[in-house]
Design goal:
Elements: H1 2-12, H2 17-37, H3 42-53, H4 56-61, H5 69-81, H6 89-94, E1 95-102, E2 108-109, H7 111-117, E3 125-139, E4 142-155, E5 158-173, E6 176-186, H8 201-204, E7 206-211, E8 214-221, E9 224-229, E10 232-238, E11 243-245, E12 252-257, E13 263-270, E14 273-279
Parallel strand pairs: 1-6
Antiparallel strand pairs: 1-2, 3-4, 4-5, 5-6, 7-8, 7-14, 8-9, 9-10, 10-11, 11-12, 12-13, 13-14
Helix pairs in contact: 1-2, 2-3
Length: about 280
């Protein structure tokens, strides 16, 4: 009964401050009368001071509005279940009005922009987004949830998959928990390997120079193409006839043809910016 009164007081003190204060006073009086009958005078002063100088629901009964990782995951899954049908309600509910939302495309959205971005998938599209590998740090009025998202999308019968990592910061204000900040990134995935005629590798084989004493060698071996620099060898996997990638490495390697029909440069393309290596032999 004592804990229940304190929990009610803590949860609703902003709305029913006067009534709750009366409840607390009654509890104090009851305890004082009991201690007085036991002739324990020092505790008569200590007990009421303890009630008012410490958080009663946290120190005695536990925090009645604390949140768990399980609840954070449940709410997060509710958000992403609402993406496919374009249901804005959970996003309106769980994101704070002053939130910051940074998505995997590099956009920085406020709440109005975020809610406007939630629309149903077009006809012929379907999919699911599942929360995976959650981790959390929960302290006081702040909770951080970091997790993966496994997305499956079907476009007119063709299946696509993608993986993301998201970190959300939840903040408790006015007794409720909402996301104040969210940041997402997409995991890099290698493209599909294309088929090209290994005889074409002869066009690319040679030495390429970035600066004096800065060279890399391209050569073929067992119908595969490789690039080597400072003794480190990496396979070049074809994405197209003249564009290659290295396993697990973002960026592309391209070979440039001159007007005479011969390759005159290797282009190391990084995030749409090119580093050009001139062919020397």
């Amino acid at each position: 009964m004592f804990c229940n009164r304190l929990a009610i007081w803590s949860t609703h003190r902003s709305e029913k401050q006067s009534a709750a204060a009366t409840d607390i006073l009654l509890v104090v009086v009851e305890q004082v009368e009991k201690l007085s009958s036991m002739n324990i005078r020092p505790l008569i002063l200590i007990f009421p001071l303890t009630l008012f100088f410490f958080s009663p629901t946290q120190s005695i009964c536990g925090d009645p509005v604390a949140i768990t990782q399980e609840e954070l995951v449940r709410r997060t899954q509710e958000l992403f279940d609402a993406v496919v049908p374009g249901n804005k309600e959970p996003w309106q509910k769980y994101f704070a009005d002053d939130c910051i939302f940074a998505d995997e495309k590099g956009r920085n959205l406020n709440k109005a922009q975020l809610i406007a971005d939630i629309t149903p998938l077009p006809k012929g599209y379907s999919g699911t987004i599942k929360v995976a590998k959650p981790q959390s740090v929960i302290h006081g009025d702040t909770a951080i949830l970091s997790y993966d998202l496994d997305e499956t999308e079907t476009i007119f019968g063709q299946k696509l998959t993608a993986r993301y990592h998201v970190t959300d910061t939840w903040l408790r204000r006015n007794g409720g928990w909402q996301i104040i900040s969210s940041q997402a990134m997409r995991y890099y995935e290698d493209p599909a390997v294309a088929r090209i005629d290994p005889k074409k590798f002869a066009d690319f084989s040679g030495t390429y120079e970035l600066a004096p004493d800065q060279t890399r060698r391209v050569f073929s071996e067992s119908e595969s193409l490789y690039v080597e620099r400072n003794g480190k060898r990496e396979q070049l996997l074809p994405e197209g006839s003249e564009i290659f990638f290295r396993k697990g490495v973002e960026g592309r390697i391209l070979f440039r043809y001159a007007d005479n029909g011969k390759v005159d440069a290797l282009i190391d393309r990084r995030n749409n910016e090119d580093v050009v290596w001139r062919r020397v032999n």
